[in-house]
From TrEMBL:
CDD domains found in the cross-reference section: serpinK_insect_SRPN2-like (cd19578)
InterPro entries: Serpin_CS (IPR023795), Serpin_dom (IPR023796), Serpin_fam (IPR000215), Serpin_sf (IPR036186), Serpin_sf_1 (IPR042178), Serpin_sf_2 (IPR042185)
Gene3D superfamilies: Alpha-1-antitrypsin, domain 1 (2.30.39.10), Antithrombin, subunit I, domain 2 (3.30.497.10)
Segments passing through the bilayer: none
Protein name, per record: Serpin domain-containing protein
Subcellular location: Secreted
GO molecular-function terms, A-Z: serine-type endopeptidase inhibitor activity
Record carries keyword Cell inner membrane: no
GO cellular component: extracellular space
Organism taxonomic ancestry: Eukaryota, Metazoa, Ecdysozoa, Arthropoda, Hexapoda
Domain Serpin: 6-370
Naturally occurring in which organism (per UniProt): Anopheles maculatus
A Pfam cross-reference name: Serpin
Family of the protein in this entry: Belongs to the serpin family.
Length: 372
């Protein structure tokens, strides 16, 4: 699943932030809807979606999400983490009871009826739900026009606000150059500190890696800074789940001088094409097989995905981070050992926020031009 991020990073010369977790949980729900087989035959829809299933074991995947979502629901004084999933279903569509039970039991997904014949009101209902679950950070993920032809809209939102375990000292007007991909400097507001952090200079990735933990012993943010003679795209070409895991395994606690720009931005992207590039194609086509999802006038086992869209945002400052994302899937009828290490992020870099208790990448992005 890392490859669709590579596609998006390459397609944008600007700042990017997305939630891989949010996309993955919705694709897993679509996978559950494709659960039909005749003897040993498996639909092509299900085969393509199997890449989102852990070790191609659906029980393992269900257990993973159930554990992660129950963990996210627990109140924690150190951070806010909210994950919610909803099906907005047209009045005449009946979501099959077995599927409703699977979605609710394992993925905490709820169902709400809307009338897509009144797209303005349907858009208000969906957007209000998204706003409520992201503390007002995301106010619009759908428009009335974007709901044309919709019968079911699946939405997942994820909101995170955390405090650094080791906050940065606040320095007023700490402005320094930031050297973009074109080599031309712009100015950015930086934050700096010295401390003991997990760090490695990875020869395999051609980049420095730094881990900044959040209070609560659950989440951390990782920064991947390409070497001066490398680029984000070159580093991304070297990254897969195996190489990234190995690079993180090599990290050791060092005294590190950390210099990172503050940044704050939103990003939105339609994900149909990047997902098709990695082989998930049939859910968007007339051949989509999602028999467990719904029945009713206009559905008749003829439901396909029309678009997968995500909107996300992130804020990083001296105190900590705030990140949020909503992903919508819309279905329509088919029709240190050497002394102090230096980590100076004054050029484009990659970042991700991980739930370290379950090894889940909640957010990922890149900074081409830090704006705050």
């Amino acid at each position: 699943m890392f490859f669709w991020l590579q596609e998006i990073f390459k397609n944008h010369n600007s700042n990017v932030v997305l939630s891989p977790f949010s996309v993955k949980i919705l694709l897993t729900l679509i996978y559950e809807a494709s659960d039909t087989s005749f003897g040993n035959a498996v639909s092509n829809t299900k085969r393509e979606l199997s890449s989102v299933i852990q070790n191609e074991n659906i029980e393992l995947t269900r257990s993973y999400y159930k554990q992660l979502l129950e963990s996210a629901q627990q109140d924690n004084k150190d951070f806010d983490l909210n994950i919610a999933t909803n099906f907005f279903v047209d009045d005449f569509i009946e979501v099959i009871n077995k599927y409703q039970q699977i979605a609710n039991t394992h993925y905490h997904a709820m169902l709400e009826k809307v009338s897509y014949s009144n797209p303005t009101q349907a858009a208000v209902t969906i957007n209000n739900w998204v706003s409520q679950h992201t503390n007002g950070r995301l106010r619009e993920i759908v428009t009335p026009d974007s709901l044309e032809g919709a019968v079911i809209t699946l939405v997942n939102v994820i909101y995170f606000k955390g405090l650094w375990t080791y906050p940065f000292p606040e320095v007023v007007n700490n402005v320094k150059p930031f050297y973009g991909t074109n080599g031309k400097p712009t100015v950015a507001q930086y934050m700096e500190q010295n401390g003991q952090f997990y760090y490695d200079h990875s020869a395999d990735l051609g980049a420095k890696i730094l881990r900044l933990p959040y209070r609560g012993d659950k989440l951390a943010m990782y920064f991947i800074l390409p070497n001066p003679d490398s680029s984000i795209n070159q580093v991304m070409d070297r990254i897969n789940s195996g190489s990234l895991h190995q690079a993180l395994w090599y990290m050791e606690e060092n005294e590190v001088n950390v210099t990172i720009p503050k940044f704050k931005y939103d990003f939105s992207e339609q994900l149909n094409e990047p997902l098709q590039q990695i082989g998930i194609r049939e859910i968007f086509s007339q051949n989509a097989s999602l028999p467990l999802l719904a029945r009713g006038r206009g559905a008749r086992d003829e439901v396909r995905v029309s678009r997968i869209f995500q909107k996300a945002g992130i804020t990083i400052n001296e105190v900590g981070s705030e990140a949020y994302a909503a992903t919508e899937i819309q279905l329509v009828n088919k029709f240190g050992s050497d002394g102090t290490q230096i980590f100076n992020a004054n050029r484009p870099f990659i970042f991700f926020i991980e739930d370290e208790t379950l090894g889940s990448m909640l957010f990922a992005g890149k900074i081409e031009n830090p704006v705050f």
